[in-house]
Write a structure and sequence with these properties.
Strand content: 25-35%
Structural class: alpha+beta
Helix content: 25-40%
Shape: elongated
Number of strands: 14
Radius of gyration: 36 Å
């Protein structure tokens, strides 16, 4: 199981993290509020090392995909130099500690313990009835075969006391009570031993329950793979996936500017461009998105099969024709003008390919994007 973590570090500030679990750093993104040309570098410091991990520039290279692992208990300091703040994120690796078989085994042990206690109590009660019958006779129990106790071959034959062996009725009653107390004490001791063994065999269970209440966040990770099968960069899926709570708000009808209206009809039949299916719903009148220019878009990404929304965003910027997003975006956005609205159907070869981007995008998945071009620089 993976648990998401993230942090924002201001310019010329530091953040110190001492992870309790194996911690992965997977993405660094420059602040969306940073002006074009603003530069920031992420530096990691450990006990004996100081390394620059990446340098980002607003409007040019705004995010970096990493895959670094930091061991538990190792104090790590992240420092930002430059004129912009950086957002860092990743996930904790939580080991699976229990399974259904262990839980079922625990229930079976409790049932066995109850059966043993019941059997011991039954034998003790039967022995007591036998002693009373020997002392006072079976006057009330004559003819009641159901209440008559017959010891089996496997049991000791000393439950019945022959006449003449005891000196007094009072002595026999005291012996019977003493035997009953010994049996009950043995049952109680066995029960306590089983509970003590069970608590010693599962110390990890208590530790596991305490994790969720500690300093480790409890938001599950939903990240996209950093590159497609063809190795042509990352789609913006990871940015929205790291904020699942905000994604549900963006689904509301109020966010119509980021999507196409359900009733809106395409201006022409779909056309193919290098395998990408393109449909224009509105032709913009502003600057055209060409190779090398920075395009700003609002978008919603869905799986063609099933229609599940896996990603969405506003004011996402990328350089057209540069390996910062999946190739289907470069093909589909090129030629749009500011104010234009377009739907793209991207095949797996121009998306995430055979690997996909677990857990949100399965392997060999065709993708559908509704895109609104809001600015070109």
């Amino acid at each position: 199981m993976s648990i998401f973590w993230g942090n924002e570090i201001q310019s010329k500030k530091s953040a110190v993290i001492e992870p309790e679990l194996p911690m992965r750093l997977t993405q660094v993104t420059i602040s969306p509020d940073a002006p074009n040309g603003a530069k920031a570098s992420l530096i990691v410091k450990t006990e004996d090392t100081s390394v620059v991990l990446c340098t980002l520039v607003a409007g040019r290279s705004e995010n970096a995909q990493l895959d670094l692992i930091f061991s538990p208990g190792c104090e790590v300091e992240f420092h930002v130099s430059g004129t912009a703040s950086l957002h860092i994120s990743g996930y904790y690796e939580v080991p699976e500690m229990f399974d259904d078989d262990m839980m079922m085994g625990s229930d079976e042990e409790e049932m066995d313990e109850m059966d043993e206690q019941t059997s011991a109590n039954t034998k003790a009660n039967a022995a007591s009835r036998a002693r009373l019958a020997a002392l006072f006779g079976d006057e009330e129990g004559e003819g009641e075969d159901d209440d008559e106790y017959m010891p089996s071959d496997s049991e000791d034959g000393d439950h019945m006391i022959p006449e003449g062996e005891c000196e007094s009725d009072e002595d026999d009653l005291e012996g019977m009570i003493a035997d009953q107390e010994k049996i009950q004490a043995a049952v109680d001791a066995s029960s306590k031993k089983r509970k003590a063994d069970a608590s010693e065999s599962a110390p990890a269970a208590k530790k596991s329950k305490g994790m969720d209440g500690g300093s480790v966040p409890v938001v599950k990770v939903q990240t996209a793979s950093p590159a497609s099968a063809s190795g042509k960069g990352a789609a913006p899926a990871a940015k929205a996936a790291a904020k699942p709570a905000e994604a549900s708000k963006k689904d509301s009808p109020k966010d119509s500017k980021a999507t196409l209206a359900p009733s809106q009809q395409p201006l022409h039949k779909a056309r193919l461009q290098d395998g990408v299916e393109i449909q224009d719903f509105e032709i913009g009148s502003g600057v055209e998105a060409k190779h090398g220019r920075v395009a700003t878009v609002n978008y919603v990404g869905k799986l063609v099969k099933g229609g599940n929304v896996f990603d969405k965003g506003k004011k996402f910027r990328f350089r057209v024709g540069v390996d910062e997003v999946i190739s289907g975006w470069h093909i589909g956005v090129a030629g749009m003008k500011v104010g234009g609205k377009r739907k793209l159907i991207i095949p797996p070869g121009a998306g995430y390919g055979a690997r996909g981007a677990p857990p949100t995008i399965p392997p060999n998945a065709a993708l559908e994007f509704d895109i609104v071009l809001t600015n070109v620089q």
